[in-house]
Amino acid sequence: MQGSRRAHAPPLRSFRQIVEQLSYSEAVLDIELGLCLIYGMHSSPVVSIEQIRKSFGLFEAVRGVSCRIEAGECFGLLGPNGAGKSTLINMIYGASRRTSGKLEVFGMDPNVSSRAIKARLGVVTQENALDEGLTVRENMELYAAFVGVPARERKQRVRDLLGFMNLAHKENEPIQTLSGGMQRRLVFVRALLGKPELVILDEPTTGLDPAVRHLLWGKVNQLKAEGKTILLTTHYMHEAEVLCDRLVIMNKGEVIASGTPKDLREAHASGYVAVFETGEDFAALRTGAGSRSYQVLEDSSGLYVRAPRLEDLLDLQKEHGRQALQLRPSNLEDVFLKLTGPELNVDA
Ligand SMILES: Nc1ncnc2c1ncn2[C@@H]1O[C@H](COP(=O)(O)OP(=O)(O)OP(=O)(O)O)[C@@H](O)[C@H]1O
Ligand SMILES: [Mg+2]
After folding, report:
1. Which pTM value belongs to this model?
2. Is 206 in the pocket of ligand 1 (CB under 6 A)?
3. Which of 63, 147, 262, 270 could be stapled to 253 by a disulfide with Cβ–Cβ 3.0 to 4.6 Å?
4. Tens of pLDDT along 274-286?
């Protein structure tokens, strides 16, 4: 009745017109629906984490982390080895129970509704966890059955996904005969079998060659375009920069910075960086850069100088008769090293 009246009504232009044409209760319902559509994404995050902690015996691996992952975004989790990224991920997808704090995934608690949550997400775990005794296709088909892909669709979906990651020619091969990168590719497409709403990728591109890494980035962007939510950990800062809308940097179980890649660059490592070749005498350069309060980092790969403007670095080069190997805008790697790695010393 309501549907047929609306089908013949002229197009509506404003909430006032809606209110005038509908009864009060219908108007309230429509306004609520509209507001839900407009604000729904913001009011109910896919993952909501408040002050979550995880201890292993006396050791606390995650120490009061809070963050929200919104629908449709690619959210990055960065941090050095042992920062607590995988521990946090394991709690999100229900593989491990938190010690304390609040955690909701799709509005449900993974400690209580682990199955319902798992049905809506796909995970690439840090370890491949493939069944070594089975072939590539058998691994995929078994997993497809596990995540509830209807039997009549399984073969085709497996074929499509294997084709996508250039693994079709390996479908009858046992897992042991695959290279490390091929196994990683297989684990990635396996996670997509159930058409998940949330895709969790724990270092998905570790061990992949550059071409396949780019292929995978394309797929992640395609998933984002389809409205899926992505949670990604990576040690490749360029990858985080390419894929992540927002990210947090963890260190020793805590969040030490958060924001968009651009926010983080601007807040922690703005400007330009010159990289000077390793093995040379850097004393004069270090002093020159330090006297201008440029930031300096020296490690086994060379001397890094960060200054506010490109011209500052060009002047520095000229003054010291030195040519930098690289002159570039600062990037997320500079942010990461500043916040978690060897300190950038202001004095040379
Ligand atoms: N089951 C466990 N029992 C005891 N300690 C653990 C366990 N799992 C993780 N840890 C410890 O918790 C800390 C965080 O580990 P986690 O695997 O979360 O780090 P990560 O940030 O994922 O590091 P990586 O970048 O190396 O993958 C580490 O010190 C690790 O040794
Ligand atoms: Mg990890």
Report:
1. 0.83
2. no
3. 63
4. 999 876 678 888 8
